[in-house]
Amino acid sequence: MNSFLSSQEHTAPSLTGRAGGESISVIKVGGAVVEDPAQLSILLNQFCSVSGPKVLVHGGGRSATKLAAQLGIESKMVGGRRITDEEMLRVVTMVYGGLVNKNIVAQLQARGVNALGLTGADLNLIRAHHRPITPEGIDFGFVGDVDSADGARLLELLQTGVVPVIAPLTHDGQGNMLNINADTMAQTVATAIAGATACTLTYCFELPGVMGNPDDSATLIPLITEQDFQRLVADGTISGGMIPKLENAFAAIRAGVSCVRITNISSLQGGTLIASEK
Protein backbone atom coordinates (compact mmCIF):
# COMPACT_ATOMS: atom_id res chain seq x y z
CA MET A 1 0.00 0.00 0.00
CA ASN A 2 1.16 3.48 -0.78
CA SER A 3 2.88 4.88 2.34
CA PHE A 4 1.26 8.21 1.53
CA LEU A 5 -2.16 6.72 2.23
CA SER A 6 -2.33 7.41 5.93
CA SER A 7 -0.64 9.34 8.67
CA GLN A 8 -2.35 7.28 11.36
CA GLU A 9 -2.32 3.72 12.67
CA HIS A 10 -5.42 2.49 10.91
CA THR A 11 -6.11 0.89 7.57
CA ALA A 12 -8.47 1.92 4.82
CA PRO A 13 -12.03 0.60 5.08
CA SER A 14 -13.29 -1.92 2.56
CA LEU A 15 -14.76 -0.08 -0.40
CA THR A 16 -18.22 -1.60 -0.17
CA GLY A 17 -21.63 -0.19 0.66
CA ARG A 18 -21.97 3.47 -0.25
CA ALA A 19 -18.65 3.64 -2.08
CA GLY A 20 -19.49 0.41 -3.92
CA GLY A 21 -16.00 -0.11 -5.31
CA GLU A 22 -16.51 2.73 -7.79
CA SER A 23 -13.73 5.02 -8.86
CA ILE A 24 -13.60 8.09 -6.64
CA SER A 25 -13.71 11.48 -8.34
CA VAL A 26 -11.64 14.34 -6.97
CA ILE A 27 -12.62 17.64 -8.56
CA LYS A 28 -10.77 20.86 -7.91
CA VAL A 29 -12.45 24.18 -8.65
CA GLY A 30 -10.61 27.47 -8.62
CA GLY A 31 -9.83 30.57 -10.56
CA ALA A 32 -12.68 32.78 -11.61
CA VAL A 33 -15.22 29.99 -11.06
CA VAL A 34 -15.22 30.32 -7.26
CA GLU A 35 -15.69 34.09 -7.38
CA ASP A 36 -18.47 34.11 -10.02
CA PRO A 37 -21.83 32.99 -8.56
CA ALA A 38 -23.21 31.98 -11.96
CA GLN A 39 -20.18 29.89 -12.90
CA LEU A 40 -20.00 28.34 -9.44
CA SER A 41 -23.66 27.36 -9.67
CA ILE A 42 -23.07 25.62 -13.00
CA LEU A 43 -20.01 23.85 -11.63
CA LEU A 44 -21.85 22.64 -8.54
CA ASN A 45 -24.69 21.33 -10.71
CA GLN A 46 -22.10 19.45 -12.76
CA PHE A 47 -20.43 18.19 -9.61
CA CYS A 48 -23.74 16.89 -8.24
CA SER A 49 -24.30 14.95 -11.47
CA VAL A 50 -21.00 13.06 -11.13
CA SER A 51 -21.83 9.49 -10.15
CA GLY A 52 -20.18 7.63 -7.31
CA PRO A 53 -18.14 8.90 -4.35
CA LYS A 54 -16.56 12.30 -4.85
CA VAL A 55 -14.50 15.01 -3.21
CA LEU A 56 -14.46 18.72 -4.02
CA VAL A 57 -11.28 20.72 -3.45
CA HIS A 58 -11.49 24.48 -3.92
CA GLY A 59 -9.26 27.50 -4.24
CA GLY A 60 -10.22 31.11 -3.71
CA GLY A 61 -7.06 33.05 -4.31
CA ARG A 62 -8.77 35.96 -6.01
CA SER A 63 -11.11 36.42 -3.07
CA ALA A 64 -8.13 36.35 -0.72
CA THR A 65 -6.30 38.92 -2.82
CA LYS A 66 -9.36 41.17 -2.86
CA LEU A 67 -9.90 41.00 0.91
CA ALA A 68 -6.19 41.52 1.56
CA ALA A 69 -6.26 44.68 -0.55
CA GLN A 70 -9.28 45.97 1.39
CA LEU A 71 -7.29 45.41 4.58
CA GLY A 72 -4.22 47.14 3.17
CA ILE A 73 -2.21 43.92 2.89
CA GLU A 74 -0.09 43.47 -0.21
CA SER A 75 -0.33 40.18 -2.09
CA LYS A 76 2.92 38.75 -3.42
CA MET A 77 3.18 35.85 -5.86
CA VAL A 78 6.24 33.95 -7.09
CA GLY A 79 5.88 31.37 -9.85
CA GLY A 80 2.12 31.21 -9.40
CA ARG A 81 2.42 30.58 -5.64
CA ARG A 82 1.42 32.97 -2.87
CA ILE A 83 3.91 34.25 -0.32
CA THR A 84 2.12 33.98 3.03
CA ASP A 85 3.29 36.10 5.95
CA GLU A 86 1.40 36.21 9.27
CA GLU A 87 -1.12 38.80 8.07
CA MET A 88 -1.78 36.95 4.82
CA LEU A 89 -2.17 33.67 6.72
CA ARG A 90 -5.04 35.22 8.68
CA VAL A 91 -6.64 36.36 5.43
CA VAL A 92 -6.40 33.02 3.61
CA THR A 93 -7.61 31.12 6.68
CA MET A 94 -10.69 33.36 6.87
CA VAL A 95 -11.36 33.23 3.14
CA TYR A 96 -10.51 29.62 2.27
CA GLY A 97 -11.60 27.89 5.47
CA GLY A 98 -14.55 30.18 6.12
CA LEU A 99 -16.18 32.30 3.42
CA VAL A 100 -15.49 30.19 0.33
CA ASN A 101 -15.69 26.78 1.97
CA LYS A 102 -18.95 27.34 3.82
CA ASN A 103 -20.58 29.03 0.83
CA ILE A 104 -19.86 25.93 -1.26
CA VAL A 105 -21.05 23.60 1.51
CA ALA A 106 -24.32 25.53 1.89
CA GLN A 107 -24.95 25.45 -1.86
CA LEU A 108 -24.30 21.72 -2.03
CA GLN A 109 -26.66 21.12 0.89
CA ALA A 110 -29.32 23.05 -1.03
CA ARG A 111 -28.79 20.58 -3.87
CA GLY A 112 -29.27 17.56 -1.62
CA VAL A 113 -25.56 16.75 -1.24
CA ASN A 114 -24.45 15.98 2.32
CA ALA A 115 -21.26 18.05 2.20
CA LEU A 116 -18.73 18.52 4.98
CA GLY A 117 -16.30 21.44 4.87
CA LEU A 118 -12.75 20.58 5.94
CA THR A 119 -9.18 21.81 5.98
CA GLY A 120 -6.10 19.64 6.26
CA ALA A 121 -6.08 20.30 10.02
CA ASP A 122 -9.53 18.74 10.49
CA LEU A 123 -9.28 15.07 11.45
CA ASN A 124 -5.51 15.50 10.90
CA LEU A 125 -6.20 14.84 7.22
CA ILE A 126 -3.09 16.51 5.85
CA ARG A 127 0.03 17.47 7.76
CA ALA A 128 2.81 19.61 6.36
CA HIS A 129 5.97 21.46 7.31
CA HIS A 130 7.04 25.01 6.58
CA ARG A 131 8.51 25.28 3.12
CA PRO A 132 12.22 26.07 3.50
CA ILE A 133 13.76 29.17 2.00
CA THR A 134 14.61 28.43 -1.63
CA PRO A 135 18.18 28.44 -2.98
CA GLU A 136 17.25 31.76 -4.62
CA GLY A 137 16.48 33.20 -1.19
CA ILE A 138 12.68 33.22 -1.53
CA ASP A 139 10.87 32.82 1.80
CA PHE A 140 7.27 31.73 1.19
CA GLY A 141 6.42 32.18 4.86
CA PHE A 142 3.53 30.12 6.22
CA VAL A 143 3.31 27.86 3.19
CA GLY A 144 3.26 24.11 3.71
CA ASP A 145 4.93 21.23 1.91
CA VAL A 146 3.00 18.03 2.55
CA ASP A 147 4.39 15.34 4.84
CA SER A 148 1.40 12.98 5.11
CA ALA A 149 -2.21 12.61 4.01
CA ASP A 150 -4.79 10.35 5.63
CA GLY A 151 -6.48 8.68 2.67
CA ALA A 152 -8.03 6.06 4.95
CA ARG A 153 -9.90 8.73 6.89
CA LEU A 154 -11.20 10.24 3.65
CA LEU A 155 -12.44 6.83 2.56
CA GLU A 156 -14.23 6.42 5.88
CA LEU A 157 -16.07 9.68 5.29
CA LEU A 158 -16.99 8.66 1.75
CA GLN A 159 -18.29 5.31 3.04
CA THR A 160 -20.88 7.16 5.13
CA GLY A 161 -22.14 9.14 2.16
CA VAL A 162 -20.37 12.35 3.17
CA VAL A 163 -18.96 14.55 0.38
CA PRO A 164 -15.81 16.27 1.66
CA VAL A 165 -15.28 19.88 0.55
CA ILE A 166 -11.65 20.66 1.24
CA ALA A 167 -10.05 24.10 1.56
CA PRO A 168 -6.35 24.61 0.68
CA LEU A 169 -5.07 24.86 4.25
CA THR A 170 -2.94 22.40 6.21
CA HIS A 171 -1.27 22.30 9.63
CA ASP A 172 2.13 21.36 11.01
CA GLY A 173 1.03 19.34 14.04
CA GLN A 174 2.41 22.05 16.33
CA GLY A 175 -0.70 24.22 16.36
CA ASN A 176 0.13 26.27 13.26
CA MET A 177 -1.99 26.59 10.14
CA LEU A 178 -0.21 26.61 6.79
CA ASN A 179 -1.31 27.80 3.36
CA ILE A 180 -1.01 25.36 0.47
CA ASN A 181 -1.54 25.74 -3.24
CA ALA A 182 -5.04 24.47 -4.04
CA ASP A 183 -3.81 22.41 -6.99
CA THR A 184 -1.30 20.76 -4.68
CA MET A 185 -4.08 20.07 -2.18
CA ALA A 186 -6.15 18.36 -4.88
CA GLN A 187 -3.18 16.29 -6.02
CA THR A 188 -2.46 15.33 -2.40
CA VAL A 189 -6.04 14.21 -1.80
CA ALA A 190 -6.22 12.22 -5.04
CA THR A 191 -2.84 10.58 -4.43
CA ALA A 192 -3.82 9.56 -0.90
CA ILE A 193 -7.04 7.96 -2.15
CA ALA A 194 -5.29 6.29 -5.11
CA GLY A 195 -3.16 4.36 -2.63
CA ALA A 196 -6.23 2.24 -1.86
CA THR A 197 -8.65 2.45 -4.78
CA ALA A 198 -9.15 3.86 -8.26
CA CYS A 199 -9.28 7.65 -8.35
CA THR A 200 -9.58 10.34 -11.00
CA LEU A 201 -8.60 14.00 -10.69
CA THR A 202 -10.15 16.90 -12.58
CA TYR A 203 -8.85 20.45 -12.40
CA CYS A 204 -11.72 22.75 -13.33
CA PHE A 205 -11.18 26.46 -13.93
CA GLU A 206 -12.31 29.24 -16.28
CA LEU A 207 -10.55 28.11 -19.48
CA PRO A 208 -11.42 25.07 -21.66
CA GLY A 209 -8.11 23.43 -20.74
CA VAL A 210 -4.44 24.09 -21.36
CA MET A 211 -4.30 26.63 -24.17
CA GLY A 212 -1.65 27.58 -26.69
CA ASN A 213 -3.26 31.03 -26.56
CA PRO A 214 -5.63 31.71 -23.66
CA ASP A 215 -7.59 34.15 -25.85
CA ASP A 216 -8.22 31.62 -28.64
CA SER A 217 -10.40 28.58 -27.85
CA ALA A 218 -9.14 26.90 -31.04
CA THR A 219 -5.70 26.50 -29.43
CA LEU A 220 -6.83 23.98 -26.81
CA ILE A 221 -4.13 21.34 -26.32
CA PRO A 222 -6.04 18.03 -26.02
CA LEU A 223 -3.19 15.96 -24.56
CA ILE A 224 0.06 16.86 -22.81
CA THR A 225 2.91 14.55 -21.85
CA GLU A 226 5.75 15.51 -19.52
CA GLN A 227 8.00 16.05 -22.53
CA ASP A 228 5.39 18.35 -24.05
CA PHE A 229 5.13 20.22 -20.75
CA GLN A 230 8.85 20.89 -20.52
CA ARG A 231 8.95 22.10 -24.11
CA LEU A 232 5.93 24.39 -23.68
CA VAL A 233 7.39 25.92 -20.51
CA ALA A 234 10.71 26.48 -22.25
CA ASP A 235 9.13 28.32 -25.18
CA GLY A 236 6.83 30.39 -22.95
CA THR A 237 3.53 28.87 -24.08
CA ILE A 238 2.88 27.69 -20.50
CA SER A 239 3.68 30.11 -17.71
CA GLY A 240 2.48 31.52 -14.37
CA GLY A 241 -0.05 29.53 -12.38
CA MET A 242 -0.42 26.90 -15.10
CA ILE A 243 3.07 25.62 -14.30
CA PRO A 244 2.31 24.41 -10.73
CA LYS A 245 -1.08 23.11 -11.93
CA LEU A 246 0.62 20.86 -14.48
CA GLU A 247 3.41 19.92 -12.07
CA ASN A 248 0.74 18.64 -9.71
CA ALA A 249 -1.13 16.89 -12.51
CA PHE A 250 1.96 14.91 -13.50
CA ALA A 251 2.76 14.15 -9.87
CA ALA A 252 -0.72 12.65 -9.52
CA ILE A 253 -0.28 10.48 -12.61
CA ARG A 254 3.10 9.23 -11.38
CA ALA A 255 1.54 8.39 -8.00
CA GLY A 256 -1.15 6.17 -9.51
CA VAL A 257 -4.15 8.47 -10.11
CA SER A 258 -5.82 6.81 -13.08
CA CYS A 259 -6.90 9.88 -15.02
CA VAL A 260 -6.13 13.61 -14.75
CA ARG A 261 -7.86 16.32 -16.76
CA ILE A 262 -7.70 20.10 -16.89
CA THR A 263 -10.97 21.56 -18.14
CA ASN A 264 -13.80 24.01 -17.47
CA ILE A 265 -17.36 23.88 -16.19
CA SER A 266 -18.88 23.09 -19.59
CA SER A 267 -17.26 19.67 -19.93
CA LEU A 268 -15.81 17.74 -17.01
CA GLN A 269 -14.92 14.95 -19.45
CA GLY A 270 -13.25 17.24 -21.98
CA GLY A 271 -10.40 19.69 -21.88
CA THR A 272 -6.76 18.58 -21.70
CA LEU A 273 -5.85 15.01 -20.79
CA ILE A 274 -2.60 14.63 -18.85
CA ALA A 275 -0.56 11.60 -19.89
CA SER A 276 2.73 10.06 -18.81
CA GLU A 277 3.48 9.16 -22.42
CA LYS A 278 1.77 9.18 -25.81
Helix content: 25-40%
The sequence of SSEs as H and E is EHHEHEEHEEEHEEEHEEHHEE
CATH architecture of the domain at 24-206: 3-Layer(aba) Sandwich
Q: Averaging pLDDT over every residue, what do you get?
A: 89
- Overall strand count: 14
Number of helices: 8
Oligomer: single chain
Q: In order across it, which strands form the biggest sheet? A: 5-8-2-1-11-13-14-12
User: What is the assigned CATH homologous superfamily of the domain at 24-206?
Assistant: Acetylglutamate kinase-like
CATH top level of the domain at 24-206 is Alpha Beta
How much strand content do the residues show? 15-25%
Low-pLDDT sequence parts: 1-20
Biggest beta sheet summary: 8 strands, mixed
Shape: globular
* CATH topology type of the domain at 24-206: Carbamate kinase
Helix/strand class: alpha/beta
Q: Give the N-to-C terminal Cα separation.
A: 27 Å
Summarize the structure in short.
The protein is 35% helix and 21% strand. By secondary structure, the protein is α/β, with parallel strands linked by helices. An eight-stranded mixed beta sheet has the order 5-8-2-1-11-13-14-12, with helices on both faces. It has a two-stranded antiparallel ribbon with strand order 3-4.
